[in-house]
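SAMPLE LOG
Freezer: B-3
Tube label: C17
Construct: single chain, 216 aa
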Amino acid sequence: MRSYDQYCSIARALDVIGDRWTLLIVRELLLQGPCRFTDLKNGLPGVATNMLSGRLRELEQTGLITRYDAPPPVASVLYELTQDGADLEPVLKQIGLWGLRRMAEDRADDTFQASWLAYAPAWFTTDADPDGPPATIQLVAGEQKAVIALEAGRVRTWVGDVERPDLVIDGPPRAVLGLVIGMTDLKAAKALGSTIRGKRQLLQRLRPLATTPEAD
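STRUCTURE (predicted):
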């Protein structure tokens, strides 16, 4: 592991987590829980096998992850965050909030996964009407699907479908995420190719944690 050789807490932190792919590995372990190597690789499109192996080895050496042999039917090595690694969750949330201002631009080569569709509203919004009735929102972005559940003031999300959702938002990732995290409005989302069916007022219950610039 390379070091900045500086007696500074920021430098010391970046000694451990500043390398390429490291924080995204932590993201996947936070979102997925204990993972096989193949689960991590599938969640990190573009990472080389040898790069991922090296990063996992370094993270284990620094005490951020642990690995163990899972019993049948899994019967495979699983990687899991230690408490020290899990303590990075608020750090990733703050980085993600800061990064929202850079989400207004589509890039042709960007990949997109359902787990990323799910975690954004869970991490970056709150329920503005905690006394409101339970409600579900189905998100569909291309072939990726996720669900938002609003109940008792909590915003819960998961990957997949829900029966009889109260609201369905279907469209490109930029439009779908833009709507649920407050980056864009209904008119702009429709212009980007979205369709919205059901109780549109539910969008008012998703209160962004931070003000973000609207997408063009």
